[in-house]
Amino acid sequence: MRVVLKYGxxxxxxxxxxxxxxxxxxxxxxxxxEIVVVVSAMGKTTDELLKKAQYFSQVPNKREVDMLISTxxxxxxxxxxxxxxxxxCDAISYTGYQIGLxxxxxYGDSEIVDIDTEFLEKTLKDKxxxxxxxxxxVNEYGDITTLGRGGxxxxxVALAGFLKCECKIYTDVDGVYTDDPKKNSRAKKISNISxxxxxxxxxxxxxxxxxxxxxxxxxxxxxxxxxxxxxNQNGTYIKx
Length: 240
Known about the structure:
alpha/beta; Carbamate kinase; two-stranded antiparallel sheet; 14 strands; 38% helix; globular
């Protein structure tokens, strides 16, 4: 059995939160042999890196911006791997480039075109937890590119599609609602929703899932779970 887990920036915002996730993954590893974890940059790291780029120019070079902001996810994956290894759970971290995640399109808004599944399958057979930097890949010129808003969701769903398994998106909300629960007290949580309905909601401003990630899920038939961090199962399932 295998699964792809994805943790957003708020879920890995502090070292203490990363430590809690590591403990949860170690427990999960006793039930599931093959675990792939996709991680976003810690908290507001991406915004802070963008501000640094804009110190030199209000319109910085897009290629160099992608090179810069991709380092946020690299910090997260390395720290989660260190946390897991420190508690006796074998883990290894990789960038998008290292797993052969190929992209096309513009810097800052690239699309995934391929992933080296042979490399992933071989690594998973070693029984290590595989931790992958979300939001990034490499284009035909060998340059690091990023996938735009919600890019780590896209990475996770694409990995689940290529590896033929379920994808669990862990975030700071406990599922998909009929409306923003912070603004509308009558908003109700949806336990199951179709790809098309979720895609519609995403296009109309729902920020829980990025549209491109939902489309990839539909293309590969990936069952996507959206819920709060640390294994709360009372979230939303996106599927046929």
